[in-house]
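User: Just a sanity check before I run the rest of the batch. Below are the structure tokens for the first item. I only need the designed sequence back.
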């Protein structure tokens, strides 16, 4: 028996080493492709020539190596990485501009970001920052935000408490200790757990690229949890961990505040997911110089240089399969006609629900392997975004490169749970509001829009509140829908003017994007902005192993935030994981090695 155990252990070790330390495929980071940054392009027409290339059958490159559905970070990054090893890739986007949640739009002369509000992890040379430099050839520039970069606000106007959140591995904790004297032990233990979880993320990536039988062996044997602290803490809720550290209700809320960046209230959040986000921002926060559209703008030329293309207004209505049930391309709906695009590899950045429940033929949707995966996940919470165009400069309006997280009180679980499970008659009692000024974060803004400013507000709203209007024309929905939106905007505006009093009377434009808006523009099935739900169930070892690039359909792969975690960094990690599978090479390790190579 011990001989058999030894053989199995040796084989497992060999597979782990192969997954961790490389493969036979080409390295997309073999050469340093960074170039000196060129001046930021502020002419919208020039940028649109790159970002808004409409689909025509005649524009589809010949002899494609892969076709990618969706142009978010997950889709574009896979295409860029494949392009860097000579692959010809076509990216298809259903919206009228590339970028997914990284796109920008303009209303009444004001430019707004659809989804990028701030990014962490960019201090110095590290795998994340190096990867971003390489996939944009060094052209994407980031502007550091203020320190404190976040401020947590608790309570009603008559009893409002402000808690600034500072970056810096030591300062983050030391400033909290000043705000909460006597809570040093709780804060130190919180930080210890955060770091330990974050530093064990390596196995999360590895388990997604190992062969399924090996991944299942690690899970069922308990080795995954033994080897990885992330998995040991994943089953514990954020509320459970934090409440076990302190009785101070304000401190509990402050330690939980950033749950809005992944969309689950503390009692439903995995402490491991939360830890990764907190750790991501310990070194500070940044914003893309020139706005979020700069991301796609500097990635697309790399795809084109290798013979590929990124085409918009290209709604993929189904994945094409042959008689052997292998993916062989996609169908693009052009008017009432289908245009078939063939490629030996199909990569979906459309999200796991869209891919498995909408794009695959019905007989493949019913595959037990696909149904098993879908049974472990659910849709994320619907996102609500509000956009304010303001008359005045950031100095005149008191706006800074910082964010506010405003909560009605410190009992976050009770307030948010009641709101999300309630009826839309309570839409004006939203207990959570994130507010930020993109214009104040971007030093090129004044050149593009002198004398103007913007605020973006983000919260959540149940999809069911808006579902009855999902089939109405997006720009002309019913009066009842508009009234509900106005109610929510006015409620948020009251909070905005309390935090930024100089904004009062200076609002020239305001509108909101609801879950059905997200459904239309970013093809989110139930208006979710973070993809599949990021609750406790998603981060069990088995669910983590099954949310992988490989699918039960040969030649079909997944990328983006549903493969890893949400946000730009999570979608990029999903792309690295997918590319690792496609190239038979540990591209995550290649990213780590860039720290010393370049």
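Assistant: Here's the designed sequence for the first item:
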């Amino acid at each position: 028996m011990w001989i058999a155990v030894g053989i199995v252990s040796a084989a497992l070790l060999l597979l782990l080493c192969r997954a961790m330390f490389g493969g036979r495929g080409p390295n997309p980071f073999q050469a340093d492709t960074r170039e000196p940054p060129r001046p930021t392009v502020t002419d919208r027409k020039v940028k649109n020539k790159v970002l808004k290339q409409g689909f025509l059958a005649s524009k589809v490159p010949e002899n494609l190596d892969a076709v990618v559905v969706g142009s978010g970070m997950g889709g574009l990054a896979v295409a860029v990485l494949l392009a860097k090893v000579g692959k010809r890739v076509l990216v298809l986007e259903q919206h009228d501009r590339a970028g997914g949640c990284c796109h920008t739009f303009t209303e009444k002369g004001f430019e707004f970001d659809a989804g990028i509000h701030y990014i962490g992890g960019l201090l110095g040379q590290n795998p994340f920052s190096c990867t971003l430099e390489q996939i944009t050839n060094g052209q994407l520039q980031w502007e550091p935000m203020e320190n404190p970069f976040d401020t947590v606000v608790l309570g009603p106007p008559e009893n409002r408490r402000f808690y600034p959140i500072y970056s810096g591995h030591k300062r983050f904790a030391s400033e909290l200790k000043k705000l909460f004297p006597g809570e040093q032990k709780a804060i130190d233990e919180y930080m210890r757990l955060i770091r330990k979880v974050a530093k064990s993320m390596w196995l999360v990536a590895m388990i997604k690229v190992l062969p399924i039988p090996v991944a299942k062996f690690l899970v069922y044997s308990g080795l995954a949890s033994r080897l990885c602290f992330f998995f040991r803490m994943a089953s514990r809720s954020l509320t459970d961990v934090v409440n076990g550290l302190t009785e101070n209700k304000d401190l509990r809320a402050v330690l939980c505040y950033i749950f809005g960046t992944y969309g689950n209230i503390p009692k439903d959040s995995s402490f491991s997911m939360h830890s990764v986000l907190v750790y991501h921002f310990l070194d500070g926060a940044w914003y893309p110089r020139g706005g979020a559209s700069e991301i796609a703008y500097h990635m697309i030329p790399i795809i084109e240089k290798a013979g590929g293309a990124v085409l918009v207004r290209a709604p993929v209505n189904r994945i094409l399969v042959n008689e052997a049930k292998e993916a062989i391309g996609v169908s693009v709906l052009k008017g009432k006609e289908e245009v078939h695009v063939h490629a030996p590899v199909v990569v979906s950045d459309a999200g796991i629900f869209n891919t498995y429940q909408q794009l695959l033929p019905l007989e493949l949707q019913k595959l037990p392997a696909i149904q098993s995966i879908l049974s472990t996940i659910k849709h994320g919470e619907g996102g609500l975004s509000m956009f304010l165009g303001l008359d005045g400069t950031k100095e005149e309006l008191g706006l800074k490169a910082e964010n506010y997280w405003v909560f009605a009180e410190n009992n976050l679980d009770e307030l948010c749970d009641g709101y999300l499970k309630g009826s839309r008659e309570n839409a004006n009692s939203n207990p959570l509001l994130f507010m930020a000024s993109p214009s104040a974060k971007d030093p090129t803004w004044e050149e593009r829009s002198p004398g103007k400013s913007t605020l973006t507000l983000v919260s959540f709203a149940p999809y069911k509140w808006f579902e009855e209007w999902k089939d109405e024309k997006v720009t002309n929905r019913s009066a009842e829908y508009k009234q509900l939106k106005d109610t929510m905007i006015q409620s948020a505006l009251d909070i905005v003017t309390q935090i930024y009093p100089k904004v009062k009377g200076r609002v020239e434009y305001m509108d909101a994007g609801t879950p059905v808006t997200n459904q239309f523009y970013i093809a989110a099935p139930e208006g979710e902005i973070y993809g599949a739900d990021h609750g406790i169930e998603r981060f069990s070892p088995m669910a983590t192993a099954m949310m992988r690039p490989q699918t039960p359909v040969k030649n079909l792969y997944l990328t983006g935030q549903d493969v890893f975690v949400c946000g730009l960094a999570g979608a990029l990690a999903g792309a690295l994981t997918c590319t690792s599978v496609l190239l038979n090479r540990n591209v995550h390790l290649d990213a780590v090695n860039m720290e010393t190579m370049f």
